Amino acid sequence: MNYRGPFRVRIEEKPMPEILHPNDAIVKVTRACICGSDLHLYHGLVPDTRVGSTFGHEFIGVVVEIGPSVQKLKVGDRVLVPFNISCGQCAFCKQGLYGNCHESNSMATAVGGIFGYSHTAGGYNGGQAEYVRVPYADVGPEIIPENMHQDDAVLLTDVVPTGYQAAEMGGIKTGDTVVVFGAGPIGIMAARCAWLFGATRVIVIDHIEYRLDFVKKYAPCEAYNYKSLGDPVRFIKKITDWFGADVCIDAVGSDASGSLLHTITGKKLLLQAGAATALHWAVNSVKKGGIVSIVGVYGPTDNLVPIGNVVNKGITIRANQTSVKRLLPRLIEHVQNGVIDPKPLITHRIPLQEVSEAYRIFSSKLDNCIKPVLIP
Q: Does 163-319 match 2-158+323-375 at the fold level?
């Protein structure tokens, strides 16, 4: 897959990736998802997304070559590869902050390296390809259990951990009301995982009816189309005895709709890092002393954020890229035990050669698409 500019991707032959460091591995990709975060790239909302880039941070495959220092993998291993590229040795990795690795993206002051996610995240080629180079191969890749379905495994590279960490960062306690903004795959998984932490009521806000229908059955939860609510903030206050939700989760990020001001300034004029509509709603819908958890992707430039309301309401904000490696042992167990069943989220299996059509379907919300997976 080759990025040619906003709304333009195509298949193109590239050189076979090579071992560049003794701890690299080359993985032959067997499944690669398109993520909602990829749409931010596709829509031109992430700075320094360069023509010629290969996207794809959600992929699994088979190890076909290893560097001379690799000890934990061998040729032929089936692996799932976390979207974070992390060294495992820096100060942040040692804290379990694998999404903030200082070695994999040492020129940045915030995010660590991410496969296929622009030069702001290290400039690494991603897994929407036949083969991919995986750095720090003794750190990130996890061998897929023999009895695990490939569709479950590929969703453990991002969707399941990110949905889980969204709920975890919310500090959800028994009896809490949780509102999730966004019914894409991450929001759907966050709603499902909110129950694991003890939520008594889970509410999802979106405007795509088929997604709302899906999350009502999968999570399960209450689900509302914000276009029918008038003011979504007032609606949430009204159905929570005017207190607000205990926890609000922003699972949308910079591609949000719902506010003309944010759409124009954030998505048309690029005066802020995308449309912060969902974040506004989250801050204004949460109760005083509540928690806002942010896993939606925003660019590294400024956003219009109602910081006064954050201060005056005593809100705690928790946000980060997901530390997939930290969460994988628990989540693999949850999948194997049937506590979480990820694979129903995959609605479309599309050959890699048809990547342009796959992006069009996913971006335009066609054919009831929840999650597309590319198959090389």
A: no
Q: How confident is the model at residue 11 (pLDDT cuts 50, 70, 90)?
A: very high
Task: Specify the pLDDT at position 269.
Answer: 67
**For residue 144, which of 25, 61, 207, 260 has the smallest C-alpha distance?**
61
* CATH T-level fold of 163-319: Rossmann fold (3.40.50)
182 within 8 A of 156, measured Cβ to Cβ: no
Tokens describing residue 300 = 């590294």
SS3 of residue 300 by DSSP:
coil
- In the CATH scheme, what is the code of domain 2-158+323-375? 3.90.180.10
- Where are the domains positioned within the chain? 2-158+323-375, 163-319
Q: Would you call the peptide bond into 220 cis, given omega within 30 degrees of 0 as the criterion?
A: yes
Looking at residue 145, the DSSP 8-state letter turns out to be P
Let me know: does 190 contact 207? Beta carbons within 8 Å: no
Q: pTM of the predicted model, to two decimals?
A: 0.95
Buried/exposed 244-283: b ≥16 CB within 10 Å, e otherwise: bbbbbbbbbbbbbbbbeebbebbbeeeebbbbbbbbbbbb
* Cβ–Cβ under 8 Å, residues 155 and 335: no
**Which helix (H) or strand (E) element contains residue 326?**
helix 324-336
Among 89, 100, 40, 6, smallest CA distance to 298 is for 40
Alpha helices (runs of H) in the chain, residue ranges in sequence order: 36-42, 91-94, 150-155, 159-169, 185-194, 209-218, 232-238, 260-262, 277-285, 307-313, 324-336, 355-363
Residue with the bigger pLDDT between 106 and 156: it is: 156
